[in-house]
């Protein structure tokens, strides 16, 4: 900070209204819970200019400097980097709802700076409430913590931002099964959606922008959020049932640096949960082939058809419907008369065996009476004398096993281990929630605690590449594979699957996969081109998750059948083989994800942040830093392809292409899926070798130690 700013700082400290005692007294500063905040920025300071209070933070620790500008009246907060706005609140952004009525901040009544924290006293639209507001700066980020002064507990408390000064917004995770705006701010996220640490949708309270700012709401409480609802250009970030709001704003030079910073604070994967083979080969799951009506004969025939036609896979997983009732954890004898024989045959064919399970217990299941009598089920939030009944996918409302009860956990695990031993079951697809907001938690536990306990429980089993859907910040530490919400069987679903995979990847989950190739949401059997194009796109992602057999499928609800031809099978087999050749390259990227939190599948702007065109590309992606996928996601046999800066090897044409450029109407018949390899990158050689083009590669030598 310059000498002029230092002089201003001196005058401020002597002349402003100091409110430090008041603000500390109300418990303004929340616990951070990490050593990341121990390093203070050198020479951060505060000065006043043009009626604003300005907190200036110089560059440090590889992060750029930034300023936080506080307008006094109306109260407003704007973050700048190099004189450019990167994040801006709306006027009166600190808002809260008390007993059904909304109130908001209006003006700054006084402020104080102690060399570490800028503290503000804010007036509100109600004379009965005030706000104690604090900004704590760090290199590349600052923490905002504020609390309400007054009686009562707020229904909601949070901040409102103007989306437009920040360019494009990303983050949040999954929006809907068939809806994923990319950028997020190009569509709408409406308030009222489930958004808490125990939801089924994989979402996290983290957002970032094309201006290289980021926002992490540091809470484990339920939230309410909207992005551009009714096209109003606003982002609302509210915490429910609290009088304290806490978020972190990241200010970096690129969006990728914002992501890296977020992962550095909240945690990178501690391990690679899927095995190498689960990256190398598809998982074949029976759901879209049989839906809720699998049979022993059907499953064996399914596996035999795959094996006899060279359709590789590491496991055949029997999805829902193998039990008579959910929670039985035993095969329905009418449909599976000899499970041991089925298991033996599947293993003879070279596949592991897996089963769908959840923590759901239907009231008329064989386990319900025992579980209820012994207190193994989560109690209802309104009446603790009875089990909490929660909605379940495609079935009746069910009770939930209380995994926070050690005896219940041991009981349930014993049933799973029994299945494994009795039938040689290698793993499970846990398709479940661990808690529901209708239920009553055990004393002292929160929704986030149940998610943690559930994740730790399933971590003791082989998830067979299907992973488990765990929401909220920090869940990426488990290193699970992350599959998407169910998709339908049409082109729109395939088009949504790509940005949804990017959304999951950029909130911290590197081991992503789409929903089952071809879809799984009870639609008609996918047409040939949808199935093939989906397989081709998935072959250029970290993992392949298969279900619909390219030999043919019949929808059990409608009887509609698609008997695919030999070409369908050959093209699907080719996609599997291409993915197998990429497995060593992908495995190296998986190791990087554990070492540094690096995504495997990422948007183009992560590698090319200075190229504006990359920020709205939603049907191309980088696989690592050397491979660019540009698959066909429509019925057309051609597409426009954006090629970023540099020299690229066109794998299908076997030619070099110079970017930046747009390849208009690039032809790609059904047998081809466009893919390019970036030259001169440290990953180039491995990528070129995977595509059998090693001789044409430009391979730099990695720098020495």
TrEMBL record:
Matching entries from Gene3D superfamilies are given as: Glycosidases, Golgi alpha-mannosidase II
Note the superkingdom of the native organism.
Bacteria
Kindly state which keywords UniProt assigns to this record, in alphabetical order: Glycosidase, Hydrolase, Membrane, Transmembrane, Transmembrane helix
Q: Which residues form the Glycoside hydrolase family 31 TIM barrel domain?
A: 291-432, 471-587
The protein's name: Glycosyl hydrolase family 31
Kindly indicate whether the keyword Nucleotide-binding belongs to this entry: no
According to its UniProt entry, one GO biological process term is: carbohydrate metabolic process
Annotated Glycosyl hydrolase family 31 C-terminal domain ranges read: 597-681
MF GO annotations: hydrolase activity, hydrolyzing O-glycosyl compounds
Family, per the entry?
Belongs to the glycosyl hydrolase 31 family.
Regions crossing the membrane: 12-33
């Amino acid at each position: 900070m310059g000498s002029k700013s230092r002089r201003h700082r001196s005058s401020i400290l002597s002349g402003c209204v100091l409110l430090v005692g008041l603000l500390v007294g109300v418990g303004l500063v929340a616990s951070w819970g990490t050593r990341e905040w121990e390093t203070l920025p050198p020479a951060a300071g505060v000065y006043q200019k043009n009626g604003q209070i300005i907190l200036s933070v110089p560059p440090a620790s590889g992060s750029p400097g930034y300023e936080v500008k506080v307008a006094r009246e109306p109260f407003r907060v704007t973050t700048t980097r190099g004189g450019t706005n990167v994040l801006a609140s709306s006027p009166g952004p600190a808002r809260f709802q008390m007993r059904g009525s909304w109130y908001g901040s209006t003006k700054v009544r006084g402020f104080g700076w102690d060399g570490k924290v800028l503290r503000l006293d804010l007036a509100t639209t109600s004379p009965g409430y005030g706000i104690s507001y604090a900004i704590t700066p760090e290199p590349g980020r600052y923490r905002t913590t504020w609390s309400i002064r007054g009686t009562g507990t707020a229904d909601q408390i949070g901040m409102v931002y103007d989306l437009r000064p920040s360019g494009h917004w990303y983050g949040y995770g999954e929006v809907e099964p068939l809806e994923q705006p990319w950028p997020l701010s190009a569509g709408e996220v409406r308030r009222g959606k489930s958004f808490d640490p125990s939801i089924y949708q994989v979402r996290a309270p983290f957002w970032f922008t094309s201006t290289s700012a980021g926002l992490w709401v540091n809470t484990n409480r339920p939230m309410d959020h909207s992005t551009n609802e009714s096209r109003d250009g606003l982002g609302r970030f509210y915490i429910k049932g609290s009088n304290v709001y806490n978020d972190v704003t990241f200010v970096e030079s690129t969006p990728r640096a914002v992501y890296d910073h977020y992962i550095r604070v909240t945690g990178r994967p501690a391990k690679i949960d899927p095995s190498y083979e689960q990256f190398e080969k598809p998982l074949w799951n029976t759901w879209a082939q049989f839906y809720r009506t699998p049979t022993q004969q059907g499953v064996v025939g399914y596996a035999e058809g795959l094996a006899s036609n060279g359709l590789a896979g590491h496991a055949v997983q029997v999805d829902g419907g193998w039990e008579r009732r959910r929670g039985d954890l035993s095969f329905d004898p009418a449909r599976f008369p000899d499970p041991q024989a089925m298991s033996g045959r599947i293993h003879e064919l070279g596949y592991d065996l897996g089963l769908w399970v959840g923590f759901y217990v239907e009231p008329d299941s064989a386990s319900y009476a025992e579980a209820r009598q012994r207190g193994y089920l989560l109690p209802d939030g309104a009446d603790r004398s009875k089990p909490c009944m929660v909605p379940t996918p495609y079935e009746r409302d069910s009770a939930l096993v209380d995994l926070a009860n050690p005896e219940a956990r041991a009981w349930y695990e014993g049933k799973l281990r029994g299945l494994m031993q009795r039938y040689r079951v290698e793993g499970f697809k846990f398709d479940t929630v661990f808690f529901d907001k209708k239920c009553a938690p055990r004393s002292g536990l929160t929704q986030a605690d149940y998610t943690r306990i559930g994740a730790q429980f399933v971590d003791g089993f082989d998830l067979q590449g299907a992973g488990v859907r765990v929401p909220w910040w920090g869940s990426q530490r488990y290193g699970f594979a992350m599959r998407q919400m169910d998709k339908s069987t049409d082109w729109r679903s395939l088009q949504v699957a790509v940005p949804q995979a990017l959304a999951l990847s950029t909130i911290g989950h590197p081991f992503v996969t789409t929903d089952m190739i071809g879809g799984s949401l009870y639609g008609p059997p996918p047409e040939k081109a949808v199935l093939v194009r989906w397989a081709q796109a998935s072959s250029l992602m970290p993992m392949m998750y298969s279900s619909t057999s390219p030999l043919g499928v019949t929808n059990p609800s409608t009887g509609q059948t698609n008997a695919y031809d030999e070409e369908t099978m050959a093209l699907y087999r080719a996609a599997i083989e291409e993915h197998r050749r990429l497995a060593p390259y992908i495995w190296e990227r998986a190791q990087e994800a554990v070492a540094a939190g690096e995504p495997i599948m990422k948007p183009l702007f992560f590698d090319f942040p200075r190229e504006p065109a990359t920020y709205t590309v939603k049907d191309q992606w980088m696989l690592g830093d050397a491979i660019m996928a540009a698959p066909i996601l429509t019925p057309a046999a051609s597409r426009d392809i954006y090629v970023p800066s540099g020299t690229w090897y066109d794998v299908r044409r076997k030619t070099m292409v110079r970017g930046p450029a747009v390849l208009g109407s690039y032809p790609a018949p059904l047998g081809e899926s466009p893919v390019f390899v970036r030259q001169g990158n440290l990953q180039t050689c491995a990528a070129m070798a995977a595509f059998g083009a090693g001789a044409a590669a430009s391979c730099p030598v990695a720098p020495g130690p």
